[in-house]
Specification:
heterodimer, A: 115 residues, mainly beta, seven-stranded mixed beta sheet, four-stranded antiparallel beta sheet, B: 113 residues, six-stranded mixed beta sheet, globular
Chain lengths: 115, 113
């Protein structure tokens, strides 16, 4: 039982390049989330998926797209990377849906640098 | 607007000393509140959570937190800190009808030998 896994762990991009961050969970959770973490700002929600087939914007969605590929996988895409997207990205999942009090389980993070 | 604030960016305590990390929230109704810990290079791990009922909640690793409605606070405490507690701690909140966690800015804890 690996929990929440993310790939890659590290990535360096040039401005304007695109990339996809992958996330998978093996806990049969319905809901999945993408956050970014910046110093002094805690974690901010980018997008979330309450269940398979649905996605919704979070607090900071601009410049990102997501795909809920199936129940296990939730990917985050940067179409044209900008230096402001340099951050650590975390994927998380929870079992009973976004409106429940169920805790969110976090992956180890992807450290992205955009030059 | 709903918000969670952690007033202390850094805290240093001696090993064996007691610890209190502050968290203040701003929500219209009683929120769901959480404390997470993040060790260097790792993801976040849930320490404890509060939804309703007893205002003193126990968590893992010997941590506890007390919900105080009158002070809009949910401070994290530990009676005796261990060197392995050095990490960054995040308070988070969510209203009972909402769908997003709001995180505080985090408090980095350093432990002196």
């Amino acid at each position: 039982n690996a929990g929440v896994t993310q790939t890659p762990k590290f990535q360096v991009l040039k401005t304007g390049q695109s990339m996809t961050l992958q996330c998978a969970q093996d806990m049969n959770h319905n809901s999945m989330y993408w956050y970014r973490q910046d110093p002094g700002m805690g974690l901010r929600l980018i997008y979330y998926s309450a269940s398979e087939g649905t996605t919704d914007k979070g607090e900071v969605p601009n410049g990102y797209n997501v795909s809920r590929l199936n129940k296990r996988e939730f990917s985050l895409r940067l179409e044209s990377a900008a230096p402001s997207q340099t951050s650590v990205y975390f994927c998380a999942s929870s079992g009973l849906g976004v409106a429940s009090y169920n805790e969110q389980f976090f992956g180890p993070g992807t450290r992205l640098t955009v030059l | 607007a709903q918000s969670v604030t952690q007033p202390d960016i850094h805290i240093t305590v001696s090993e064996g000393a007691s610890l209190e990390l502050r968290c203040n929230y701003s929500y219209g109704a009683t929120p769901y509140l959480f404390w997470y810990v993040q060790s260097p290079g790792q993801g976040l791990q849930l320490l404890l959570k509060y939804f309703s009922g007893d205002t003193l909640v126990q968590g893992i690793k010997g941590f506890e937190a007390e919900f105080k409605r009158s002070q809009s606070s949910f401070n994290l405490r530990k009676p005796s800190v261990h060197w392995s507690d050095a990490a960054e701690y995040f308070c988070a909140g969510r209203n009972n009808a909402g769908n997003m966690l709001t995180f505080g800015g985090g408090t980095r804890l350093m432990v002196k030998p």
